[in-house]
Design brief:
globular, single chain, 4% strand, binds zinc ion
Length: 567
Amino acid sequence: MISPYPKTAHEFMSLTWAQIEPFYQELADRPIDASTVSAWLADWTHLSRLVYETYERLYVAITVNTADSDAEQRYNAFLDGIRPASQAADQKLKEKLLSSGLRPQGFEVALRNMKAEAELFCQENLPLLSEDTKLGAEYAKIVGAQTVEWQGEEVTLTQLSLVYLEPDREVRQHAWRMASDRWLADREAINAVWVKLLGVRRQLAANAGLPDYRAYRWRQLLRFDYTPDDCRQFHRAIEQVAVPAARRLNEKRRRQLGVETLRPWDLDVDPLGRLPLKPFKTIAELKEKTAAIFHRVDPQLGEYFEILRRENLLDLDNRKNKAPGGYCTDFPIAGRPIIFANSVGVHDDVQTVLHEGGHAFHFFECFRIPYFQQSYAPTEFMEVASMGMELLGSPYLTRQEGGFYSAKEAARARIEHLETSIRFWPYMAVVDAFQHWVYENPQAAANPANCDARWDDLWERFMPGVDWSGLEQERMTGWHRKLHIHEVPFYYVEYGLALLGAAQVWRRALSDQAGAVAAYRRALALGNTVTLPELFAAAGARFAFDEGTLGEAVALMERTIDSLERL
Ligand SMILES: [Zn+2]
């Protein structure tokens, strides 16, 4: 008889692997049949949630205070001492369930994923997977070391990119060229890592008995509900409807800026020369007003956000010794999500809280799902929750609705958001189509010059309206500057598909707010119990790749921009 499970992650956190291992062992030894499987799954779920929540809490601890060396030590100890062992033990339980032949209700998708993972597993690939991660880290290291001297100070290229907001065109151009030169200085180094990465990825696929790395990655990413052909259809749809819309946006921007041609350093600056929006002065105000927006979207969602506010689960300020970026994660044993951000008083901060708020609501809706393995929807739908909330919240940005802005300022924020959304699809298509070409033509792609040429062709096809003359080297090496291509191959189209789902949820909300939000919440609450097309359908959307669906979304965005511009 083993001791009972710890009730909370706090209790669990102090255990060593030697103390945790018996829990897994007992589950591995316990016989299961149709009458006992649900109790077994419940225990496995509790254990999985303890491990998951422990990791998430340790991760949160190192991000809220990067100078906390105790936290860092605990985090690393978990990564070394507990995580790999618990993953291996977990894999055994998955295999046990698969080989039992039992098919618990609501477990179809979970079983499908487990089966794919078990099939893809192969011993010879373990060192190659580590090699792939290491090469990815090598790329990250090259990029992370990129700094330039700007006005007497050493700055990162991310810091430098703020200069692209400068009204003075010469200053913007100067900064842009400095950043590009810095990238080009690493051209050979990035190419060298790339060639090694392709070799490793080819071998991964071959070891798994698959024709190419795309087929391997497709299974690894558990993409059962769409194919490379669907992606190709999506690219064509983007070319037909999003590219012309982006071209119109570029032409408008060119006119507003009063320039002969739009250059790459003209794309971020406010085209009307206005100062940046300043939505709030204090974090309390940020919380207060986003809470008001969520309440307007839906009273229950507003309540969820109040819980986060009350229980100190919103870490939104920017301070020394805090990791960069923003995220939302969850503590499933405690039944609470947490939102992390670095707010400095700009509109992006508002957008981030709306986005992460959508993820938080998704977690809230899923805490009721009985089993861990059913709880987390795939990214393609997780991002519908977050991007959908950005759009659902947008009508309430005005002070009149409890938000931050005058009607004119809110219109400006919404126009920028919608324009960014329309522009995202063509760029996403370049990144995705490029990778399809790479892994369909691994031999050609092993010569970086061919990759440059291919990227250039795709850029021509999807990204018109910007004058790159004299910047040919900069343009063709654009694939160096997209980390996903190097570190998380093929992971990107998810965002394009989710954006199209989010746009459909928003479209319905314009005529039926209550119905749209109710469907959105019902879909969120399904977790990972149904397929992607079913998740989208539950949210009142189609999981779609076609010109018709995308065309409607783009047209609605353009119409909305038009009417906001007339305010
Ligand atoms: Zn997100």
